[in-house]
């Protein structure tokens, strides 16, 4: 065991010298340090509670039906107001007022509003007193999936529509249902657990506008992801956003900038720096010295492969770990899910590095290895993007607009190739769940979508890595040097 560790250490040192001599690894570490410094210069100033809560409850006009299980956001035509806000030990206490308007409910269960009701009294006497836009929203929220008999055509996830419920459904709404609805709104919009207690209902003539009053206690401080913040850069020198939820800001930084743009640049540079490892090893003189040592060629190639992964792991850990620590200290929101980028980005590189090693072994050219690997990376990205677009078309009930051969070709390619794009989707899933509120996820189309399987994504990609590295090892063993 100790003998193998010494061999691996010696090969790792050789690879390290090659990487340092090329200056690229030092450039990557320097870029990582710059990114960490920029994140450390960011400021996240929370709005005062007396300004934050009115803004939070104003967003309650958007809700997800079916007790939050629905995918499409719907619209409650009410005014949500917050007042008498007080800081308490566990969080905050406040009063929430819901100002509702008289609604025009369906005269019969499932009847569409554009169809005239039958002659005679449409609703029982006094029913209009229990028909308003807040009860309308809560009744729609209480409906089970598929309960609504007449549905509009499918819409994008961000489309807002008024709910359609019957008078009977509105009359069935109880104060406890309203309390549960508001508690979920605090959880879905601000990621704050809430206890809600119905206080009273007031009706204001002559328009019969109804006001519902609730006592609310929420747990959590100002560093929750749904709390509005002002973001600055360079220690307050530049203001980037005002009154934007903290989770949205962190999601853009972590997923779009660090994982998206930064991850792409890191993979590009990593492919370049590691592409020289195998050609340099196969040079005349170097290979003679290496194969004269008591070490198998397959073992030698495996050590080279693992050595390249370790370098990328170190750089990724330094950059992502530093950014995570800087953002957490500056914002007060600790999101350990962001650290998942470290192993997932390293695994994405492992797919590309397997291609790089095989090409380098066949051609002995670092330049050929770089070009082929980057083209393969681009091809995987295009296949993944087209697959996502076709899946969206199929879900929108317009499969006839797509050629069968196109669907079959893309599905086949996606099944037999490494799941590079699926790995990126799963990373986005982890980051969005750690930063975005439920409503924010639904707004940008991430709530309720079907993600790729972890087992298929990792299993197929790992099998691909084993096959490519195995082919490279077989070629290495069969050649005379």
From TrEMBL:
Domain of life according to the entry: Bacteria
One cellular component (GO) term of this entry: plasma membrane
Listed Pro residues bias regions: 115-124
Pfam families: ABC2_membrane_2 (PF12679)
Record field: transmembrane: 23-44, 265-282, 303-327, 333-359, 366-384, 454-476
Single Gene Ontology MF annotation: ABC-type transporter activity
Region (Disordered): 103-130
Keywords on record: Membrane, Transmembrane, Transmembrane helix
Tagged with keyword Transmembrane: yes
Cleaved signal peptide residues: none
Keyword Transmembrane helix in record: yes
Name of the protein this chain belongs to: ABC transporter permease
Species assigned in the record: Thermogemmata fonticola
């Amino acid at each position: 065991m100790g003998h193998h560790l010494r061999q691996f250490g010696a090969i790792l040192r050789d690879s390290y010298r090659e990487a340092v001599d090329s200056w690229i690894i030092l450039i990557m570490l320097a870029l990582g340090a710059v990114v960490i410094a920029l994140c450390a210069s960011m400021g996240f100033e929370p709005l005062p509670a007396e300004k934050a809560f009115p803004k939070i409850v104003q967003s309650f006009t958007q809700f997800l039906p079916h007790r939050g299980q629905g995918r499409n956001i719907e619209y409650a035509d009410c005014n949500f107001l917050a007042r008498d806000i007080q800081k308490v030990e566990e969080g905050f206490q406040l009063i929430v007022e819901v100002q509702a308007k008289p609604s025009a409910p369906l005269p019969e269960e499932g009847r569409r509003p554009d169809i005239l009701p039958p002659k005679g009294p449409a609703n029982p006497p006094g029913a209009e007193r229990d028909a308003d836009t807040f009860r309308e929203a809560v009744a729609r929220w209480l409906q089970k999936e598929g309960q609504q008999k007449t549905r509009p055509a499918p819409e994008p996830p961000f489309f807002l529509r008024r709910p359609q419920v019957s008078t009977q459904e509105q009359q069935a709404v109880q104060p406890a249902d309203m309390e549960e609805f508001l508690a979920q709104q605090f959880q879905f919009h601000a990621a704050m657990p809430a206890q809600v207690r119905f206080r009273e209902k007031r009706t204001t003539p002559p328009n019969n506008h109804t006001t519902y009053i609730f006592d609310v206690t929420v747990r959590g401080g100002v560093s929750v992801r749904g709390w509005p913040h002002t973001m600055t850069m360079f220690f307050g020198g530049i203001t980037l956003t005002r009154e934007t939820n903290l989770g949205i800001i962190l999601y853009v930084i972590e997923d779009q900038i660090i994982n998206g743009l930064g991850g792409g640049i890191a993979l590009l540079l990593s492919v370049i720096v590691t592409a020289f490892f195998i050609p340099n090893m196969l040079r005349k003189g170097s290979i003679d010295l290496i194969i004269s040592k008591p070490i198998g060629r397959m073992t030698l190639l495996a050590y080279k492969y693992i050595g390249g992964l370790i370098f990328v792991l170190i750089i990724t850990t330094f950059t992502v770990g530093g950014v995570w620590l800087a953002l957490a200290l500056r914002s007060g929101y600790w999101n350990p899910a962001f650290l998942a980028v470290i192993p997932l980005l390293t695994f994405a590189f492992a797919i590309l590095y397997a291609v790089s090693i095989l090409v380098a072994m066949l051609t002995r050219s670092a330049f050929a290895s770089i070009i082929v690997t980057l083209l393969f990376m681009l091809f995987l990205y295009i296949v993944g993007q087209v697959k996502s677009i076709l899946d969206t078309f199929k879900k929108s009930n317009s499969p006839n607009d797509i050629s069968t051969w196109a669907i079959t070709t893309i599905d086949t390619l996606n099944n037999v190739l490494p799941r590079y794009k699926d790995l990126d989707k799963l990373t986005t899933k982890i980051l969005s769940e750690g930063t975005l509120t439920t409503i924010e996820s639904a707004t940008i189309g991430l709530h309720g979508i079907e993600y790729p399987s972890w087992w298929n994504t990792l299993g197929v990609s790992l099998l691909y890595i084993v096959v490519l590295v195995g082919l490279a090892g077989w070629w290495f063993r069969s050649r005379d040097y």
